[in-house]
């Protein structure tokens, strides 16, 4: 598969991106919400394989202090191929110069990020729009 990397959403099909998140599976993310989120992100990676969107990721960053990596998704047909690692690595590279690069991981995925140099934070806190769901998914522990 020939891969093409893009770093702008100019030609992006927002419905295709929404579908990628659904099947990855990272949940239902509507095209208009994704357009707003990616528009506010300093760094973006879109990977196309044979013309089809197969991997994506973004980072919210301020240019000096903090870069937050989020929404990394890989099409199920190519999961396990190293594309997720490549997207995270590229976002880390793009975030170079920031004092800290952070992300949060779904439970069970921590070892993947540890291999890429991330370390567990002992002081991270979060407020989710749906706190009950975050508790059920193990994203927060409620203590």
From TrEMBL:
Pfam families per record: Acetyltransf_1
PANTHER family associated with the record: ACYL-COA N-ACYLTRANSFERASE, GCN5-RELATED N-ACETYLTRANSFERASE 2, CHLOROPLASTIC
- Protein name, UniProt field: GNAT family N-acetyltransferase
Q: Which Gene3D superfamilies match?
A: 3.40.630.30
User: Keyword annotations for this protein?
Assistant: Acyltransferase, Transferase
Report which superkingdom the organism of origin falls in.
Bacteria
| MF term (GO), any | N-acetyltransferase activity
Q: Name one GO cellular component term.
A: cytoplasm
Q: What InterPro entries does the annotation carry?
A: Acyl_CoA_acyltransferase, GNAT_dom, NSI-like
Instruction: List residues of the N-acetyltransferase domain.
Output: 1-142
